């Protein structure tokens, strides 16, 4: 139905978006790649010239890199585990015949709209602070020594904060999927004598599989780049205990002004994200046809 | 929910659900309550639930200390500005992909989404240096530009899924009835597209408002948005608890309200219609 004229018009209408995104993708990436092979420090202007693989060897050889990589994986994995399992249970709970379901949905989704630095600061000062935090008071109430969360369990503390922010997202998506399950299907299974566990395993879980995949994939994109939560709570420390790749690149490139090494770290982050993106694209691509 | 369940079960589930929901909500509730306490009460050894001496002094103090209104204005300018700019560029693209698709449309959409997967740290250093050389560091328009770029793929995708649902038949029917192009656009297309555009606008304002990575790395005092403003409160741990709460409340309240009103459209928008 599209005539040659509409095709031309369509191309013209798409051009700005395509050009802008093309520039946005190519220019900085090429520059990052270029810097990653250069000796380039903002502090020491004498450092110039081709560096070969030196920046990569420096970044990858640095123990903080290995730890950041492991931290990144633990952070993403831990948050996914909590939000997907927690989200499934919460969605099942909210799907029950309860009073005030509409209001509950709104209350449960709220943490998703809290900006990351605020979320981190609320938890840091209001809940996890050993002196003034709610958890500190709770521990004291039971006669226990309050825990200094960010010094003793820094990565775990960051995971808790991030999971709190993303649990609503998982719950909302999974609840929507759950509510699209037809009532007849459930009743038929009930008639056939399937108990709650079997109904969950053979009917509900397969029905939710696709939305669980989408939740995992979308969250992974965002979780790989966790930054503000670390910046305002632990600053990546103590040591490198809560530094992830995103924070490491920020620290090397911007705080330490080592453009070369920071860029090499950035390239590694891009490669890491692309491995994830590869699987994401395939999953989303399938959904597009549906 | 039309299922018949015993009333005891219903009461049980209701209590459990409310308990869990309030537990999740408690950090926000805590901010809300602490914001109206005095500083001494906020850090008292015996915590109070409701403010004993209800006060508004924290809000005044926040404004005095670091000019909340300036940062809020920056947040509004950047989030609304970048969304509008994104819509201006994105609407024609999404429109043509939905109504005049070619074999490459799907590939282009995929590619656009893939730019969203590029980690910000991978491009931070070049952007930082380009901004430094162009004197765009710590400027509202520089930040708006970045925000437009990072959210454009989402804008196009959301609009595309909404436009896709406008039936082509209706357009053709209108054309058969002799509607002129202008009438077709104003009377048929626009009214059907407005809800989708509105949801896209809303969700992207929320996303841009809460964006923290670029605001923290590219701005300082002058063009800082509320995310950067709040991050500056991170150093004195545990101090100024009431003022921190007041500032936090001011920063999240507008978006929280918007989020509550738009939660129905949210699922569609966040998953590009992949979950129904």
TrEMBL record, chain A:
<feature type="transmembrane region" description="Helical">
    <location>
        <begin position="106"/>
        <end position="123"/>
    </location>
</feature>
<feature type="transmembrane region" description="Helical">
    <location>
        <begin position="155"/>
        <end position="178"/>
    </location>
</feature>
<keyword id="KW-0813">Transport</keyword>
<dbReference type="InterPro" id="IPR035906">
    <property type="entry name" value="MetI-like_sf"/>
</dbReference>
<keyword id="KW-1003">Cell membrane</keyword>
<feature type="transmembrane region" description="Helical">
    <location>
        <begin position="208"/>
        <end position="228"/>
    </location>
</feature>
<dbReference type="Pfam" id="PF00528">
    <property type="entry name" value="BPD_transp_1"/>
</dbReference>
<feature type="transmembrane region" description="Helical">
    <location>
        <begin position="259"/>
        <end position="281"/>
    </location>
</feature>
<feature type="transmembrane region" description="Helical">
    <location>
        <begin position="73"/>
        <end position="94"/>
    </location>
</feature>
<protein>
    <submittedName>
        <fullName>Sugar ABC transporter permease</fullName>
    </submittedName>
</protein>
<keyword id="KW-1133">Transmembrane helix</keyword>
<feature type="domain" description="ABC transmembrane type-1">
    <location>
        <begin position="69"/>
        <end position="280"/>
    </location>
</feature>
<keyword id="KW-0472">Membrane</keyword>
<comment type="similarity">
    <text>Belongs to the binding-protein-dependent transport system permease family.</text>
</comment>
<dbReference type="InterPro" id="IPR000515">
    <property type="entry name" value="MetI-like"/>
</dbReference>
<keyword id="KW-0812">Transmembrane</keyword>
<feature type="transmembrane region" description="Helical">
    <location>
        <begin position="12"/>
        <end position="37"/>
    </location>
</feature>
TrEMBL record, chain B:
<feature type="transmembrane region" description="Helical">
    <location>
        <begin position="212"/>
        <end position="233"/>
    </location>
</feature>
<feature type="transmembrane region" description="Helical">
    <location>
        <begin position="108"/>
        <end position="131"/>
    </location>
</feature>
<feature type="transmembrane region" description="Helical">
    <location>
        <begin position="76"/>
        <end position="96"/>
    </location>
</feature>
<feature type="transmembrane region" description="Helical">
    <location>
        <begin position="143"/>
        <end position="163"/>
    </location>
</feature>
<dbReference type="InterPro" id="IPR050901">
    <property type="entry name" value="BP-dep_ABC_trans_perm"/>
</dbReference>
<protein>
    <submittedName>
        <fullName>Carbohydrate ABC transporter permease</fullName>
    </submittedName>
</protein>
<keyword id="KW-0472">Membrane</keyword>
<comment type="similarity">
    <text>Belongs to the binding-protein-dependent transport system permease family.</text>
</comment>
<feature type="transmembrane region" description="Helical">
    <location>
        <begin position="240"/>
        <end position="261"/>
    </location>
</feature>
<feature type="transmembrane region" description="Helical">
    <location>
        <begin position="184"/>
        <end position="206"/>
    </location>
</feature>
<feature type="transmembrane region" description="Helical">
    <location>
        <begin position="12"/>
        <end position="33"/>
    </location>
</feature>
<dbReference type="InterPro" id="IPR035906">
    <property type="entry name" value="MetI-like_sf"/>
</dbReference>
<dbReference type="InterPro" id="IPR000515">
    <property type="entry name" value="MetI-like"/>
</dbReference>
<keyword id="KW-0813">Transport</keyword>
<keyword id="KW-1003">Cell membrane</keyword>
<keyword id="KW-1133">Transmembrane helix</keyword>
<keyword id="KW-0812">Transmembrane</keyword>
<feature type="domain" description="ABC transmembrane type-1">
    <location>
        <begin position="72"/>
        <end position="262"/>
    </location>
</feature>
<dbReference type="Pfam" id="PF00528">
    <property type="entry name" value="BPD_transp_1"/>
</dbReference>
């Amino acid at each position: 139905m599209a005539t040659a004229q509409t095709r031309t018009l369509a191309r013209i209408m798409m051009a700005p978006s395509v050009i802008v995104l093309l520039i946005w993708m190519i220019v900085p990436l090429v520059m990052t790649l270029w810097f990653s092979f250069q000796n380039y420090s903002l502090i020491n202007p004498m450092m110039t010239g081709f560096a070969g693989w030196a920046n990569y060897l420096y970044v990858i050889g640095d123990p903080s890199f290995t730890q950041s990589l492991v931290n990144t994986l633990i952070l993403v994995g831990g948050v996914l585990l909590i939000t997907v399992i927690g989200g499934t249970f919460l969605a099942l709970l909210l799907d029950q015949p309860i009073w005030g379901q509409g209001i509950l949905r709104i209350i449960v989704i709220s943490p998703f709209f809290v900006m990351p630095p605020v979320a981190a600061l609320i938890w840091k000062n209001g809940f996890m602070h050993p002196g003034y935090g709610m958890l500190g008071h709770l521990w004291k109430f039971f006669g226990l020594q309050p825990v200094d969360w960010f010094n003793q369990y820094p990565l775990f503390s960051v995971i808790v904060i991030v999971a709190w922010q993303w649990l609503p997202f998982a719950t909302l998506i999974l609840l929507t999927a759950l509510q699209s399950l037809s009532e007849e299907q459930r009743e038929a299974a009930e008639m056939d004598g399937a108990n709650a566990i079997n109904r969950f395993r053979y009917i509900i879980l397969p029905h939710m599989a696709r939305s669980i995949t989408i939740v995992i994939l979308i969250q992974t994109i965002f979780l790989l780049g966790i930054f503000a939560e670390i910046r305002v709570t632990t600053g990546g420390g103590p040591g490198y205990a809560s530094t992830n790749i995103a924070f490491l690149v920020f620290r090397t490139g911007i705080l330490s002004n080592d453009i070369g090494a920071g860029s090499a770290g950035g390239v590694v982050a891009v490669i890491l994200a692309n491995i994830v993106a590869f699987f994401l694209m395939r999953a989303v691509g399938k959904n597009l046809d549906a | 929910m039309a299922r018949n369940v015993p009333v005891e079960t219903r009461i049980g589930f209701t209590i459990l659900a409310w308990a869990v929901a309030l537990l999740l909500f408690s950090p926000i509730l805590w901010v809300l309550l602490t914001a109206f306490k005095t500083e001494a009460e906020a850090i008292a050894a015996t915590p109070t639930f409701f403010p004993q001496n209800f006060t508004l002094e924290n809000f005044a103090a926040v404004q005095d200390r670091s000019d909340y209104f300036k940062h809020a204005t920056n947040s509004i300018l950047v989030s609304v500005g970048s969304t509008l700019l994104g819509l201006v560029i994105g609407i024609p693209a999404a429109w043509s992909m939905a109504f005049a698709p070619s074999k490459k449309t799907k590939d282009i959409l995929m590619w656009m989404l893939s730019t969203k997967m590029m980690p910000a740290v991978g491009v931070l250093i070049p952007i930082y240096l380009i901004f430094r050389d162009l004197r765009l560091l710590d400027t509202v328009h520089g930040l708006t530009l970045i925000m437009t770029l990072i959210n454009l793929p989402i804008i196009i995708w959301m609009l595309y899924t909404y436009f896709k649902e406008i039936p082509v038949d209706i357009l053709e029917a209108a054309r058969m009835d002799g509607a002129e192009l202008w009438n077709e656009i104003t009377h048929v297309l626009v009214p059907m597209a407005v809800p989708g555009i509105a949801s896209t606008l809303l969700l992207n304002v929320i996303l841009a408002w809460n964006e923290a990575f670029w605001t923290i790395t590219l701005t300082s005092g002058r063009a800082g948005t509320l995310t950067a403003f709040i991050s500056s409160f991170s150093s004195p741990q545990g101090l100024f608890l009431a003022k921190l709460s007041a500032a936090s409340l001011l920063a999240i309240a507008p978006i929280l309200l918007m989020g509550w009103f738009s939660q129905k459209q949210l699922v569609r928008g966040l998953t590009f219609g992949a979950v129904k």
